[in-house]
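From the shared-data thread, chain only:
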Amino acid sequence: MSKPHALKPQGRPRSPDFSSGPCAKRPGWTLQALDNALVGRSHRSKPGKARLAEVIDRSRAILGLPEDYRLGIVPASDTGAVEMALWSLLGERGVDMLSWESFGAGWVTDVTKQLKLDDVRILTAPYGELPDLSLVDCDRDVVFTWNGTTSGVRVPNGDWIRDDRKGLTICDATSAAFAMDLPWSKLDVVTWSWQKVLGGEGAHGMLVLSPRAVERLSSFDPGRPLPKIFRLTSKGKLNEGIFRGETINTPSMLAVEDAIDGLKWAESVGGLKGLVARSEANLKAIADWVARTDWVDFLASDPAVRSSTSICLKIVDPWFAGLDDKAQAEVPKRIAAVLEAEGVAYDINGYRDAPPGLRIWGGSTVETSDIEALTPWLDWAFATVRAELAQAA
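Structure, as tokens:
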């Protein structure tokens, strides 16, 4: 096992952008990618609608969506897409809520404290683990994140979801879509945002509906007021325009152009297969480094559930274990600050609600060579911070 070294590394990542959202732009991106953006034009104009439809069509093709699944652009990023699904679809039957990180916990809060549904089962697990998926009742609705962005834990597959289920599966896949192969037949509602795996900008989210979800929308009245930006139906019928690019509110045409640029790049690297391979290579580069390094480990102990996008690490050095909670929380903050000051890595401190640690984005726009160049700097930064704190003590 290697020891953290005090000598500053010579090589550097070409891109220091390892943030978990907004995420790194695709390799080679410049502002010139947006030269043809329809700034100053209405999103409801013929070319404006065509650009929005292009985002839908290219996304559908890359992801391999079934023909009878609908895909639309909706307001307020992934959060808006999830909230739209929760408020529009839940209440017809009981719901199982799966929570093992902060965003899943947020959906639990919305369902129990805001929607105030009566029949809710909550299956939880601590950061770094999954709930017991065998306990999920697929005759109830099920709400879960495919990939825990703040915990670095993903579900390994969809085998736990029954094909003959009576409930709907509502999946927040914002840090999984385009980097992980999602089993569409197991999923009834899927959401993501532009600013994750393809490195797009914020504002709007994407919403997938299976035929079963559409049937629920058409037959079930949730009996609650819905804000305009949540309304997927009109007079009991699905608003089909949403799934042709007729957005409920005004999108940024700069962000739309950027989304198209990211999708074209995705096609150029081999589509979904190429995107998945790029992200998995990033996870492997981190895993290889962790295997030879004695001060750090994955937050997720089970390799089968480790995320390839939001790669979460914990510090396991005996010196760190001897610190009090306040001092432990300070160490990854200092490591992140040291590396940011060097221009080597930005925004890699762990999520505020997660155990103290580091979070490195390994999505498809990140070059594996940059991950490999980063790891010696992580060793150096840890050794530097440890020495500083030891001297201060």
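The chain has two domains: 31-267, 272-392.
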